[in-house]
Amino acid sequence: MAGIYLHIPFCKQACYYCNFYFSTSLALKEELIRALVREIELRNEDPGNEINIIFPDEVIETIYFGGGTPSLLSQDDLNSILSSLKENYHIAGDPEITLEANPDDITIEKLNEWRNAGINRLSIGIQSFIERDLKWMNRAHNAVQAYDCIRLARESGFHNFSIDLIFGTPGLSDEEWVKNVQTVIDLKVPHISSYALTVEPKTALQKMIALKKKEDVNTDVQANQYMILMKMMREAGYEHYEISNFSLPGFRSRHNSSYWQGKKYIGIGPSAHSYNGNERTWNKANNSVYIQSLQNGILSFEKEILTDSQKSDEYIMTSLRTIEGMDLQRIENNFSLNERKRIESAIEKEVEREMYFFENDHIILTDEGKLFADRIAVKLFT
Q1: Which of 27, 174, 187, 376 sits between 20 and 30 A of 75, alpha carbons compared?
Q2: Are 10 and 23 in contact (CB under 8 A)?
Q3: Comparing C-alpha atoms, which of 267, 296, 306 is closest to residue 51?
Q4: What phi and psi, each to the nearest 5 degrees, are found at residue 320?
């Protein structure tokens, strides 16, 4: 079982906290779509070679349109890409097909187009229901659209959807954050992905903070708001199945779960990554290089063959983020008994006991441990 991720390399706006922004003309967009389709075909022309990590008898369970602003794609664009995928791969009978969308792109007409093309799940970048926050983040939508897009999605028949919320923005009080989370609960949103605002290098936000034009984030406030989020979502019946992800029963993201479970996936598009369990490849990020190489029947990419240590470290990092935790028996089976003993010894020596617990041969982080998941993982690395 495997998944396909399509990176749509253009965005209609530049957010302060993001270092990705590429606006494109209609003509260039059409070239990019043709290149995406050509990559799909090229990967499947020689099954089992180094660029096609999915074999003919393997089933694609999930397809995810992400990256910049895939909601800018027309129904014809989506049909072209999905048709190519179906012609070149064995797609499951009930695949999860997700499209990332901005609230201001969501209309009944667009929703109907997406459904007609085969999209059956949405990931909506709401970020906040508070007008001030949206302006601070330079988002194109407003608070009214944040509410309306959920109503419109349901009216058009989308009952499987997720929204993004960001906490820890400067000026966001705990009381306001509680209202944001309560809105999700009251609207019975089936899935939420929530992240602390991070200041990435070379972004507009990082530059403005350095120039004292924007207030810096407060990590103590962020930690407290994350604890509020976990408590409220749990009490409302949501499953906290991954550090940043919560779902009502039956609404986990199948696509994202495949990453954390170490399943194979193919990344289509500029800078998209692929993984087959033993190696990782990534396409060149430059859009022009990507288009030109595919026009010549070549996929330009780089590759890394993973060592056993890297595989173990990656499993430690991803598994600790999940509700199931790290499976020590899997460590022993896939690597060695010595590796299992090394991890057991390391966690007992290096990690405070209140940060984790053992259950059925699994190491699972507590709520407090989730605040330091990356730091704990590093302590367990080889």
Answers
A1: 187
A2: yes
A3: 267
A4: -65, -20
What pTM was computed for the model? 0.93
β pairing state of 273-275 and 121-127: unpaired
Rg (CA), the chain: 21
In the block, tokens 């020590």 appear at 328
In three-state form (DSSP H/G/I as H, E/B as E, the rest C), the secondary structure along the chain is CEEEEEEECCCCCCCCCCCCCCCCCHHHHHHHHHHHHHHHHHHHCCCCCCCCCCCCCCEEEEEEEEECCHHHCCHHHHHHHHHHHHHHCEEEEEEEEEEEECHHHCCHHHHHHHHHHCCCEEEEEEECCCHHHHHHCCCCCCHHHHHHHHHHHHHCCCCCEEEEEEECCCCCCHHHHHHHHHHHHHCCCCEEEEEECCCCCCCHHHHHHHCCCCCCCCHHHHHHHHHHHHHHHHHCCCEEEECCEEECCCCCCHHHHHHHCCCEEEEECCCCEEECCCEEEEECCCHHHHHHHHHCCCCCEEEEECCHHHHHHHHHHHHCCECCCEEHHHHHHHCCHHHHHHHHHHHHHHCCHHHEEEECCEEEECHHHHCCHHHHHHHHCC
